[in-house]
Design brief:
447 residues, alpha/beta, FAD/NAD(P)-binding domain, 2 domains, seven-stranded mixed sheet, four-stranded antiparallel sheet, globular, disordered N terminus, binds flavin-adenine dinucleotide
């Protein structure tokens, strides 16, 4: 028998194997060089009621709220893990308010399991890994949410005949795999307005002229200046005799009292264009160089530095919605009839003399300002909503509403509205706002 399995059989078998491999895409030695690298794309398709792109500070509450509202949800994230800024940019500090709804639930879990600082609510910070753990746990607890990580949206599906409807999106993996997801309602929570931009929606970038919306402060002419970016780091004592003066590390810092660890806003730089990933990467290298001396100082004094994997980008595009939120809306503490989220954080525009927190004289009523549903519904689109730091607002108004407790409320509101529209077969603009508000109140947002 052994002699029958001779050279000819072996060759036949080897050729057959290499042909099958070329079709299935397995890596195999091939006698035909032109086949090398010609792997066919593996295509896959999904359909859902609500699609949320971006599992960050606004996208996670959007997905959870839509699921709790009874919708089937797909949540797509570019990174390997959900979380967004608190996880990948080390934006770990709790600030602003009100702290309500799904964001309050997350803080409750963080406080219970990962409490680090002496002040467990406002002014506290938690380790980025604590956010990663709690956020993953909250998503796992919602059976209606299908989370897909390492899933960057690279294309949108729009048909020629109905350009104001977004049928869905396409995700392309680095290995050539392609996933198409169709949805009734899409929520752009990418922080950069990437989905809306791909869909050709109107976006703003930079600062408006003061006169455009008659805002009480701002430059005379519109410009393309956006807020500065910051590379965050966490310092932590390693050597038992280690001792530092946090004031000697560049930028502001927030110590975890009694624990020999601190959160630092260390490397602040200007980015040429935060819409361009290459420009963001270049700015990150500049920030890295800027903090070199801080790292050396920390190590010399027995400390280590955990540097955020991604540069903290405060501002990118702002996607124009049915309403553009302005500084006037904030200082008048306006509560439009379609208010679905609240905020009380002031203007805090880094590197901008018109909106710098320490310089602004604008005041807000203690009850805070309202954020209307219209600002989340993308102008000219039937089924696309935008939340988070890329929501419809002027450059200065955005510097206030960008903090996590407020963007989380936007996400919760948009997810609730999207679920209502998708499950009732209603369009976003014909929803009864009272129904959305009632669901939000039931979900812990006291509008
Ligand atoms: C340096 C710095 C300091 C700050 N300090 C504070 C603070 O102390 N307290 C506070 O509350 N807020 C602070 N903020 C603001 C706050 O962190 C952000 O405004 C907030 O996280 C924005 O939430 P978001 O959901 O819009 O974006 P993100 O939290 O950034 O989430 C966006 C998500 O979308 C994903 N994504 C992007 N593109 C795609 C794509 N094409 N496909 C799939 N997924 C995609 C990203 O990977 C990311 O996970 C700070 C921000 C910065 C940068």
């Amino acid at each position: 028998m052994a002699s029958r399995w001779g050279r000819r059989e072996f060759l036949r078998s080897a050729i057959a194997t290499s042909m099958v491999s070329a079709v299935t895409g397995d890596v195999a030695e091939s006698a035909q060089p032109k086949l090398v690298g010609s792997r066919a794309a593996v295509k896959d398709a999904l359909r859902t009621q609500v699609l949320v792109v971006g599992a960050g500070a606004s996208g996670v509450p959007a997905a959870l709220a839509a699921a709790r509202g009874g919708a089937k949800v797909v949540l797509l994230e570019d990174d390997n893990t959900p979380g967004g800024a608190p996880v990948d940019m080390y934006v770990a500090m709790v600030c602003g308010g009100p702290i309500v709804g799904i964001y309050a639930e997350m803080l409750e879990l963080l406080n219970r399991n990962f409490h680090l600082t002496a002040k467990p609510t406002g002014g506290a910070w938690f380790l980025p890994s604590a956010y990663a753990e709690v956020i993953s746990r909250m998503i796992r607890a919602e059976p209606n949410v299908q989370l897909r990580c390492s899933a960057p949206v690279s294309e949108v599906l729009i048909s020629e005949g109905s350009r104001n409807r977004l049928h869905g999106v396409t995700v392309r993996g680095a290995d050539g795999r392609q996933l198409t997801i169709e949805a009734d309602v899409v929520i752009d929570a990418t922080g950069s307005g990437a989905v809306a931009a791909m869909a050709g929606c109107e976006c703003r970038y930079g600062s408006e002229a003061k006169s455009e919306f008659d805002e009480p402060t701002g430059p005379a002419k519109a410009n393309d200046k956006i807020q500065l970016c910051t590379l965050m780091l966490v310092s932590q004592r390693l050597r038992p005799d280690g001792k530092i003066d946090p004031g000697k590390v560049t930028g502001q810092s927030c110590p975890a009292e009694g624990l020999n660890a601190a959160l630092h806003w260390a490397g602040t730089v200007s980015c040429a264009d935060t819409r361009d990933p290459l420009a963001v990467a270049a700015a990150q290298q500049e920030a890295m160089q800027k903090i070199e001396k801080d790292i050396a100082y920390l190590y010399e004094h027995g400390y280590t530095a955990h540097i955020a994997p991604k540069l903290g980008v405060r501002e990118c595009r702002r996607v124009v919605g049915d309403h553009v939120l302005t500084v006037n809306d904030l200082i008048a503490s306006k509560r439009a009839d379609d208010t679905v989220a609240l905020g009380n954080y002031p203007l805090d525009s880094w590197g901008d003399r018109y909106g710098a927190m320490e310089k602004t004289t604008l005041t807000y009523t203690p009850g805070g300002y309202g954020i209307p549903l219209r600002a989340m519904i993308t102008k000219g689109m039937q089924n696309l909503m935008t939340v988070g730091k890329c929501m419809s607002a002027t450059h200065l108004a955005m510097s206030a509403i960008r903090v996590q407790c407020i963007v989380a409320q936007m996400g919760q509101a948009a997810g609730t509205a999207a679920a209502l529209a998708a499950t009732k077969g209603t369009s976003l603009r014909s929803l009864k706002v009272r129904d959305v508000q009632a669901m939000l109140r039931a979900g812990g947002v006291p509008l």
